[in-house]
Amino acid sequence: MEEQQLNVKSSPSRGIYLLPNLLTTGAMFGGFYAVVAAMQGKFEAAAVAVFIAMILDGLDGRVARMTNTQTEFGAQYDSLADLISFGVAPGLVMYQWALVHLQASGTAWGKAGWLAAFVYVACAALRLARFNTQIGKVDKRFFVGLPSPAAAAVMVGMVWVFHDLDVTGRNLQIPALLLTLSVGLLMVSNISFYSFKDFDLRNRVPFVVVLAVVLVFALTTIDPPKVLFGVFLLYALSGPLLWGWRRWRKFQRRKKGVDA
Question: Which ranges does the record mark as transmembrane (predicted)?
């Protein structure tokens, strides 16, 4: 995960730490398997593989910090794994599920399909590269641009939801095209997204928060594709909505200043 790149220490040893890099490898394997599954038409398995990659990606950085095994090698390896799992894999899964069918509408539309998938992958790479250069320079409470794991969850979440509803990507070519471009551009935007890094699990929380967590787990168990897609779609929309709200408040303050 991108978090693994914080507080990296240089190691004079020629070896590498096994546990965090093993988790990173598992996350990368999930992304690779998602591509293979999509090529075989197993879109549900592809989506699940990306979500599993997200879990492993979230663990590797935390394990590295807990065991004091953070290294520059681990940070760079994690970035490359993220590009595969949350850039290449979601882009190709979406292409195989829906965008490839744009070819039936003509050569230009066919090119638009694979170009949209490429734009998504390129934006994921740019997002990760920008994150690497902004370590320690931005407020850690917020991400600049939509995080690549969340973007991947929106992409494969859409595939999983409609595949579960027996709706084929052939019937959703344009929505898939628009979603792919929108999510990709959100990754490289300057819009802020809450990072939850200041949330400490050791602190006391109201009882209602615990109840809400239990409810989310229960709903996820009942209908994983819809709940996961809904949660990450809301998160992706939270950035633009918050940005618009701040702009509106700034406009209102200026308007009141002029009227005064």
Answer: 16-36, 80-100, 112-130, 142-162, 174-193, 205-222, 228-245
